[in-house]
Please model this.
Amino acid sequence: MPSTPPADQNAQPHAPAREATGEASRKRPARFPGAWALRLGFIGLGCALALAILEIGLRLFWRVELASWQRNLDVTVPLDPAVTLGVAGPARIRTNSRGIRGPEWSNNRSSEYRILTLGASDTRCLLQDQPNTWAALLQTRMPATADGRSVWVGNAGGAGYNSRHLVLAMRYMLNQYDPDAVIIMGVTDASMAREEGAACDPLFIDRDEKLRTLARDFAERPASLAVSGRLSLRGTYLWAFLREFRARFRGAGQGMAETAENIRKLQEARRHASRFVDELPDLRPGLEGFRHNLLELIRLAREHDAHLVFMTAPGLLKPEMSREETDRLWAGWIGDRSQNTYWSARAMAVSVDAFNRALLDTCAAEGVDCIDLASRLPSSTAVFWDQAHFTDHGSRLVAAELVEYFQAYFEKTRR
Model:
């Protein structure tokens, strides 16, 4: 009877099977990259599809507008009595669901007369309690038109806005808000002309790519105003939605609380200027561009059948100022603020006066109403707490001028 072979001999015939198994196990990972790539492809496709659905949904149901203020804002800005003399604080800021500083308007459009105010920071009135701003006072003091319609006044002013900004605003806001009248006051074209001099582009608003860049100075911007016309993530409604959501999440009005303190520091810096410049650059290109922009604003108002009222820019600036008055100034630096060089008060006053005269001349030539606030309001610290921003008393004076104007206008145009 043959003897039983040793155990290690019995294992020998099975070695090829183990090797085959080992080879199979070594080959199995080679199939994994393809499987994972397929899975990742499906995940990526699903994400792209979800983003596309979100984009389509936002385009269908989310109204993206050009707005100077963040929507549904309700913040309180502390004031420094040593800076904003003549202004009762704190300043509460409330905006409606359309990004306008003011109340919601009526659902019955035919029963309401809508007035939209546009301009720079002297229209915006950031450091002034809402009921004391001249726009709010206009609505309070003129509750109805001569034919019985209620009056709604909304503030769409923006810090640093010049007539270029207002052309962009009018191109969108007249359709968005359907105002019956638009009041424009206090743009910063004189400051821009001093800064740009002969390099100022009079046809800036005709160059679409340039005009689009100003959209970044608004709180909300439509996707159609993406800086680049090329297809990109930043040009989507989803990007605009995330940007607005982020602005609300991080705290409405962030940075406003430091405004008064920042102005105090700027006033101090100007008081210790190393040099004041009295000789102005060539303002003619700036004035030419300003007139060109005014004509476009007038054209837009007429095209939309909106009554347009301009107001010249009043202020504390004049060729001869007292020490108390010059201590209120803080703007007018030249180039980099670290150079501590400023335009003189006389130079700033002369440039502002040149643009006020250009506004009056253009309005007279075009048959458009212009209230000459610069000559009607006293240039004193009782009216202005700095070079251009109104005290509470100053805002009451502006509102009184506008109430007088609109009462006469309503009587003249009674239905």
About this structure: The mean pLDDT is 88. The radius of gyration is 31 Å.
